[in-house]
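Q: Could you fold this chain for me?
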Amino acid sequence: MAWEVSSNIYGGIRYSPATFEEYRAIAGALDECAAELSALASAWASAGLQIRSRQTAALCPMLTGGDLPRNADLTNIRHSTLPLDQLRDICDRQAADCTRVAERVGTLARLLIRAHALYAEAETRSRETLDATIQGSMTLLPMHTSAALGIWALAGAFTKGGTSRGPSGIGGLSATSWAHQGVARALARAADPIGPLIAGRQTVAAGAERLTPLTKRLADTDQGDILTVTRIPARAPVVTAVHGMNEALSNLQRLGSQRRDDQASSDSSSPNSASGLDYATIAIQRYRKSDGANAWLVTIPGTDGQPDSPFGWLQNVEAMSADPDQRRQADSVRLVREAMDRSGIAVDDDVVLVGHSQGGIVAAAIASDEQERYSIAHVLTAGSPIANHPIPERTWVTSIEMEDELVAELDGSSNPQTEGWLTIRGAVHEQDGMSIPATPFEASPVTDVGDDRQISHGLQFHQAAYRNAEGLGSPAVQRHERHFEDVLEGTLVETSYWQGRMSQRTSGGE
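A: Sure. Below is the predicted structure, expressed as structure tokens.
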């Protein structure tokens, strides 16, 4: 069994009302054409069935009871019949051709709708209404709503992800993906009932602000509050020169795989043993542009959960807070900021931040809160809940999310739909190897995953989602790809790796 991803696009470009209506009219005309072709295919198929129901179809007047000429010589008359086999084949071919063309025209209509996000705003409004409804239901009837969602998840565990070994939690997540944002809102509202009532404050961000003093205290008690950032030499290259988002995501995947494991010292195939890098390590690359200016690419992996890592679970809450000071004090944000400063990034140098999961949250926090410190030109995130971060309009944002990964929904909101903010949402489907998509743009295969259904928070799924969105020919995706490439135009001249570790304060103080 294989897995594939199909993507939908939101934001990233603004159409004039006339252009928008023109695209919708074209999509509607294509749909109508597909329906007419399907009806024609049915008519040809029906004609073939009618021919099959008859054994003979005589043309001879004698066999049909027609009038014969007077004094006709019937001695050597020959009776003729229709070529039924040929007629049946003609009808079958015509029906198959009409069906094939109808499917292609219908696919073209769907691709046009997806590539130009014709119904994105309507879908977003519907999603907002659903989120608000779930939040209200969880607030007023928490037990009943939780029980209903639990039953729904249990059913999905058997029907969407069940295997011979029993139900799958991934199936439960997939079945309830429509409710994730609303539930996140409700839980955040319970943590801070007053914060969301203040204008301009999002529910989840306000809840994170209320929880941050507790999570910060827990993290400092467990890990300590001393952050040590060290530049680490790599024995083998991990990140390579980047000229587009696909390559940036590949680098992010390779860097994120540099984790401590028990086999690292004995297994020569372990990425850790090859590169010498470890968890909580980011990469910073400097590019020299044709005009002599510097541009920088910062690659930030996600949560690793190691005992002394600044990319722990609790730091996610701090980096999602509505309070910019709390976001700045998150250990993972501190690591990236210190590494950027020590790398020599100047205030007027263009910077691109690329992050997965918590790495994307950190990227969004730096873009939001360090506008006077850095010139953040573009942020690329995968599986990161960043809808509530106040990223300035001058910074381009490309967000890749999956429908059922849960993590990206923890912000409780849909991303802004502006020219500068593009969201690609992917949906995972099974492919049994027997069916072939009508076009290669229908879905993109997920590589390097097993046969069993996995949570789509893995970067392989986000990479497939971006490949599928890129293949649609979307003007919005093309604009963001060009901007990303333009910022990093030039030659890679330096790559550095920076590792962070947390420790307890010594008794003598510092």
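A (continued): The two ends are 57 Å apart (CA to CA).
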